Please model this.
Amino acid sequence: MIRAMRFSSKTVGLASAVVTVLIWTGFIVIARASASRGLLPLDIALARILGASAVLLPWAWWWMRPARQAGEQAGSLWGLSPLPLRQTVQTGLLGGFLYAILAYTGFVHAPATHASVLMPGSLPLWTTLLAWLFLREKVAAARALGLGFIVLGDVLVGGASLLMAFDGGEVWKGDLLFMMAALCWSSYSVLVRSQGFDAVRATMAITAFAFVCFVPLFALLVGLSILPTQLHQAPWSEILFQAVFQGVGSVVISGITFTQMVRHYGPVRSTMITALVPGLSALGAVWFLDEPMHWNLLAGLALVTGGIVFGVRQAQKPVAAPTLTPTGGQP
Model:
């Protein structure tokens, strides 16, 4: 009976791809919707960390239990992280702490349509540049052309909001924060590649660091009335939803499904599949949030999506890890 319930590799790969794309798309739309419902960016970040920690920290502690029983040095942060302390701090700062704060703060200032272009669209750009700079990876001419499309798409979106800043507009602040969030996640991705960490251990490490450092600091600053919060005014259903979707969904589930997708389709085809995220999330923002779709956003989406697909297709011959992406599924 158990054998009959087993799914084929093709079915698992397809299901993983669908779940990954849906969660990454939902992350952008829901984060923007949440920014206008009362919770502050750091409130959502706290819910994300607590939701992910509820699953990953017991898992990590149990995973390293045999090593501890054997008297071996297992991980760091009192057995909550499977990585050494230095690597835990590095990955945790980039992939957990800074990424969440920058992304959620960006949604306060800029619409989800902008995030659709500037966050997932910028990941291949930053990752390629960082890999070229620190890992000495070569960038083929065709791939560079694809990155040029991405840059042009980013300029069309971010440049328009920057021009409106002279008239008092604040959307440019969100655009800048989205770009910085993408840079942080790309830095984390390159670090994980250079150190050879697997996705599960790295995700456990960034969650452990965020839990140990961010949660106590947040509680202290709120208790001293230094940091504002809306948690005490928000309904428990809202907080629980954020913890489940932002933490369990965006961090844990999409981290696992993305890894499964890469195992089945390979890094190149997986990156092409995730190229659907900018367009789908932009359509979701228009449909669910009534955000306008101006010509520069349409052009930016077309350029970014085309740049990802074109650049990755041309990268099939060189040896390369995925140039996109959130692992820990993170969006």
